[in-house]
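Record format v2
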Amino acid sequence: MAQPRIILVGGGFGGLAATKALKNAPAEIILIDRTNHHLFQPLLYQVATSVLAPSQIGFPIRGILKNQKNTTVLQGEVTGVDKDEKCVFVSDADRQDIPLTYDYLILATGATHSYFGRNEFEEFAPGLKSLADAEATRNKVLQAFELAEAEEDPSRHRDLLTFVLVGGGPTGVEMAGALAVLVKTTLKSNFRRIDPASARIVLFDMAPRVLGPFSEHLSQAAKQRLENLGVEVRLGHGVDQIDADGVVVAGERIASKTVIWTAGVAPSPAGKWLNVETDRAGRVRIQKDLTVPGHPEIFVVGDTAALEQDGKPLPGVAQVAMQQGRYAGKLIHSRITGSKQPAPFRYFDKGTMAVVGKGFAVLQSWKIEMSGWVAWMVWAFVHLQFLATSGLRLSVFLQWIWTFLTGQRGSRLIVDHRASALKRIPVREAVPATGGK
Amino acid sequence: MAQPRIILVGGGFGGLAATKALKNAPAEIILIDRTNHHLFQPLLYQVATSVLAPSQIGFPIRGILKNQKNTTVLQGEVTGVDKDEKCVFVSDADRQDIPLTYDYLILATGATHSYFGRNEFEEFAPGLKSLADAEATRNKVLQAFELAEAEEDPSRHRDLLTFVLVGGGPTGVEMAGALAVLVKTTLKSNFRRIDPASARIVLFDMAPRVLGPFSEHLSQAAKQRLENLGVEVRLGHGVDQIDADGVVVAGERIASKTVIWTAGVAPSPAGKWLNVETDRAGRVRIQKDLTVPGHPEIFVVGDTAALEQDGKPLPGVAQVAMQQGRYAGKLIHSRITGSKQPAPFRYFDKGTMAVVGKGFAVLQSWKIEMSGWVAWMVWAFVHLQFLATSGLRLSVFLQWIWTFLTGQRGSRLIVDHRASALKRIPVREAVPATGGK
């Protein structure tokens, strides 16, 4: 008898956890991702601020799974799902909409940034979800200092050296802190006409406090810390306008050449592919076993799934994705082998953390609340733990120590990819769709 | 009295050596480069083959020179020189053709790759001169394996897994060796449908041997080593055609989706800017003091200069550029301060090396010829020595040990920059040209 085929879409925290949970399953497993790497998104802001190189938070998925012989990794873009025929459609650089049939499907397709319907902002305020995004932001930030230094007229320095972050969640706060440290340490003595430390960094959020998911006490500590680092934190107003010259907030224009979007997220189109019920944000409503109602063979996990627990929706964080992925993998394994099925999914919240600048983090776990350098040590330790390979753990650890001691960052490069933009291998003439079992 | 102004164009080996030699000069020094980083070009092939991250061979020029207070670093593109008015024209993302006057000018603008008049080859066979080039080549190489793995029909694997290198100089040989090791070690066990070790790697050169500048004996040793690694070395024929389907050599078509150009170089347009005599390749003919005839204030050094010594033209290598740069800097310093001027420039050739695969290099220095792992240790030691900062030396050293022991490479990423391509800060309306003293 042929082995059942399990298709997983997405090599992020959810998809990877699910795949690993299926390590010993008697099945043919195919993991599809649009990139070749598992990305450690929580440290993306450190690539955007030159601390880490892209390769320190991105590792080839097939390298991680090389010893898992029941699993094939494919780089491709999923474009749709046919629930009735039980197949997904995949495109790669060569071919379009190749159908691949499945017996079980796990969608772990994550989220991207959302401009809340103001997509025209994207041109002026790029978001931060992929390595390419982070490198583009890094280019933009470093380029602003280059332009200011080349500008002999000091009156023109102001808007080049104003950095605006839109969104005061963990990404915005961590990014603002890292920028503030960048201008005060790494860039010190590097310029002759400008003083990088004079750069203005402004963080906006429409909420009355930063780091919404944390306690008020910790929000306040984070805000205070940002202000000590010289960041202006402006709360209670959304951004009305973003254009080439800056932002408009509550009627006031702030001239800035560098605006970065660190606000909302929107789920992947998994809900549309499946044509099933979603929540208001577009996340697929799943059941306690993480399957889609009426389709016990389709699982949705992570940021693209909506599930309530104790009357509250689970947050879109890595921990939820990992625990859900692992659960879905185990459940499928037990179904295939006919062994005892696990109890309904329950999220175990270990706590949450955010780093603010150098040597300071806020941490909230159960009844514990902490801010300061001990929280920062815990933050560093936990993040190192979750990197994909021991090589990355060692490399990031050494880089952090180096940066802490010397102020030097690991990857302060402006690389203009327009000229050498990925020249794809040309698309062949259409070939008969293969796939299936 | 105002200090004299020295403008240096190019932050490569030559320009950086010249700038450092002017460390104590009572002058206003401006170093202009089109990128923000000094690039260690000899290791560019290791970025293209995933061993090193871009940030391990590229370091911000202004970081290197941060303590040299007489020097301002500007990121910009030089577009021309006016010898009579003694000014260079510089463009940046914001402004066009800003004139900057000089008292002394050092052009160290290097070389780019040349397609010998067949520029239509570039689309199909990218070269290797910048970090963006190296990352594009890395994308292309890794993408070929991804496409082959996604291809269920084995008959289509062949051309995806054929890699052609055009040019058997040091870059071609080092690249071929690194590719051969990549497919046999790093990629091992990573794929299910293809065997990466079965990839075909073909190196072409129209010369009768690889590594022309080396002795025949060492050329033969390098060729033998490549063949032991499984590389096909085909000599004595140029490539007649390169297109989307591969190359044609001596009437034979070799199907390949990945062709890489590792052949000729062409100098920068410095000769055109200056409108002075050049050699056949376009390099500026300079005098024994490295100045342009009739212009004792204009120096040209490195790959873009032509100078004979003992009846033979000096080669376009890093050593020549560094020694010339240092000489030009010292000569200008002595002229400014009225101290004793150095004797005419004389190149001191320390020798040359090339690495072939893992644990093997060829080395030629004076009467010494060596091949094998001792030469490789010397190669590694010397290359580490010349990296720009102690941080890079440590980081590359650790990466090499890690790669040697585990077969893992440091940066095996495919990053598609098309969507997030550098969004430049929009060009402002033209501003009055400033500059001058």
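The radius of gyration of chain A is 23 Å.
Confidence is low (pLDDT under 50) at residues 421-437 of chain A.
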